[in-house]
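FORM 7B: Structural annotation worksheet

SECTION A. Query
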Amino acid sequence: MEYTENIDQALDYAREAIKKMGEIGIPANPNNFTIWFHYFSGTYPDLKRTLDILIANQQEFTETRNSEIFQKFFTLDQESATLHDATTRVEGELGRLINAMDKADGCFARLDESLGSAQRKLADAEDKEQVLEITNTLRQELGEVMSENSVLEDKLKQSAEEILALKEDLERMRREAMTDGLTGIANRKLFDLELRKSSMNAMANGEDLALLMLDVDHFGRFNGHFGHQVGDQVLKLVAVTISECIKGQDTAARFGGDEFAIILPRTNLENAMRLAEHICKRVSSKNIVNRTTGERLGKVTMSGGAALFEYGEPVSQLLVRANQSLDTAVDQGRNQVLSQEDLEKVRA
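SECTION B. Predicted structure
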């Protein structure tokens, strides 16, 4: 990680970070200081956006939440170290496999030499005792080769099992790096990758690509009134509902805070609107219950924005239109879904 600030700038950012952490009750440990130093320095726009959303919604910065933020934005070095460790282990196992194969080749070469020698000796044998001696020697050497081969076979099996386990570890690490820890759906990192890939596929195949942005209405007040755990319960409910409503080709992601995004390949704006309205209706039809107290907490409503990809445009422009549609839906009273076409009507 490179720092481009001069001493005075760095000191200013550090003072602001410490002051802010004191205001909202965050311990000034190294990880938290890293988060808020970069918040004020503006190094990571996504980090600043996430923290601004949490602050605006009056979210509590618990130890768990602080840890999640640090893990999301500042663990690339840890992921690289884990990947390097796994790669080193794979290389070690491959080295052991090669050594085992070399030993096996040596065993068979020695056996081939012994067979040739036995053949020559048998041709020259003059009595029964010599033949028995030659065959006994050959039997002994065969037994040794078979024993060594059995050991090598076990080593090969162990190495194969270790490589399979490493493959599973790497796959798990990949999934965790691309998954939101709270809701279990895609995180912002995977969303960005999938949106770029989907836009390229849409242009290559001449297909539609729609993007939905959904936001929980009054989540800050809801979360503040009923508590952080209930707020997390709501976010999980929304994620499950979205996952139940989309198709296999679609990608649902937690965009940040209480905002969700859905990438919809081969989907026009009209069908994207239908899906968004269906999701919002499904969410609002569920009664939220406090799992601790059993208290019914009422219904949750959502606002949404939909936009359609235009061939050749940066995906950031698609994202801007979808967010503008969402913001307009919120400004117009919430609990509704608007599209980029509605934006034009509002501006007219």
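SECTION C. Observations
The chain has three domains: 7-74, 77-177, 188-347. The two ends are 47 Å apart (CA to CA).

SECTION D. Sign-off
Analyst initials: ____
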